[in-house]
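Cross-posting from the chemistry board since nobody answered there.

I work mostly on the small-molecule side, so proteins are not my area. We synthesized S-adenosylmethionine and want a rough idea of how it might sit in this target. Sequence and SMILES are below. Is it possible to get a predicted 3D structure of the two together?
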Amino acid sequence: MDELIAAGATIASARRAIASAFRAADLDSPELDARLLIGHALGLDHAALAAAADRPLSDEEAARVTALGRRRLAHEPVARIIERKEFWSLPLVVTPDVLDPRPDTETVVEVALAAIDAAGPRRAARRIADLGTGSGALLLALLSELPDALGVGTDVSLPALRVARHNAGRLGLTGRARFVACDLGSALAGGLDLVVSNPPYIPSIVIPTLAPEVRDHDPRLALDGGPDGLDAYRAIAADARRLLAPGGTLVVEIGIGQLEAVVALFDTAGLVVDRAPHPDLCGVPRAVMAQQQT
Ligand SMILES: C[S@@+](CC[C@H](N)C(=O)[O-])C[C@H]1O[C@@H](n2cnc3c(N)ncnc32)[C@H](O)[C@@H]1O
């Protein structure tokens, strides 16, 4: 990429050159990635980057942009490089210890909020839990929408819980969010109005075949769902009736092709299951909702 960012290149031309190198390497979202990386290298947000489009890069800036571009060309995801990811419009810190939060997971937030809206006003005291919280993405998105809710995020990874706590602090949500090291919901008392989870759900044998962005950069603990990918759903199903208050809602993210199996697990556990597929933006069934009888 050295030759693509010539000495004295403007921000706009460097951005075009990097996007074109990313496109040639068949990376997803080359323009967006180029913008985010250049903005990070120069410490400029979107608006400032556009305003400075004609400014030439110094040699040192060009070297910094080139170094970040090389990392992306080596399949490191942008969120890993800039250690930031937007989720539900919240700016989250992400480190190698947590899953890079995905837009698909916003489907869980949408489904959970729709269930809450159907039950009553958002301004009501509620107790919510996020099992396998990672960066805190789901819990913090829900707390940002439910101003009177209290929430707990669990994880078996202590470094992940540190990231989630840090994110809660940055978003001013520390007073309403607790983080607990435990296996899914095992350390939680019952009586929860809402339980959400995006558990690890990739069958172990599939992990080596994943894109390098995922396989080499998301924590294995965040991906590996056991032999058939369903281990965490079995555990959640077994504990859901203890965890949920009467009428309480459970929403989980699912992987491709897991809808029927997860619906069956929740049904067998005695929950009232909503069989709707709740598609993500690509039309893939992405969430399953179930409720405790009232
Ligand atoms: C797919 S990631 C989801 C992270 C975050 N909720 C999100 O949606 O971006 C799954 C998370 O569950 C955690 N985890 C894996 N097994 C767990 C278990 N048995 N109990 C609690 N957390 C677990 C992982 O450490 C990881 O942070």
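Reply from a structural biologist on the board:
Welcome over. Reading the output above for you: The domain at 85-291 is CATH 3.40.50.150 (Rossmann fold). The chain has a mean pLDDT of 96. Happy to explain the token format if needed.
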